[in-house]
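The instructor's notes for this session suggest beginning with a concrete chain rather than abstract definitions. Hand out the sequence below and ask the class to guess, before any prediction is shown, which regions might be ordered.
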Amino acid sequence: MVTLAKSIDDENIEKLVRTFYPEVIKDEMIGPFFIEKLGNDIKSDTWEEHLVLLTQFWKFVALYDDAYTGHPLKPHFDIVGLSREAFERWITLFYETVDEIYDKNTGELFKQKSADIAENFMHKLEL
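After discussion, reveal the predicted structure:
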C-alpha cells in the first residue's frame, strides 16, 4: 500500500516533479512541446537542469522557498502551437500525479495553485 504525503516538503515536491515529467513526455498532446525544447531523454543534463528549476518553482509556490528566481511565463511565449487544450491536458496529468503523491487535502494546494497559474498563463498568452 502506498502512503500518501500528508504534508508538503522538499522531498515530496521533488518526487512530484520527477514523477510527473516522465509522464508528460510520453503524452501525445503535450509531450512534443517538451521534447522539442528539452529532448526525449529525461536523464539528460538539459532535462536535469529543467527538473531542478521546476522543483525550485514548486518549492517557491508551495513553501515560499526563495531559491527560485526564474520567470515562468516567459518561455511559454516561444512555444509554437501552444493551446488551451494543451494547458488543460497538462492540468489533467498534473492532478493525476498530485493524487499519487499527496493525500486529498494536501494535494488540493497544488491543484488550486496549478489551476490558477495555468489560467493566468492562458490569459497572458491570449489562449
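Then share the key points. The first helix runs from residue 10 to 26. The mean pLDDT is 94.
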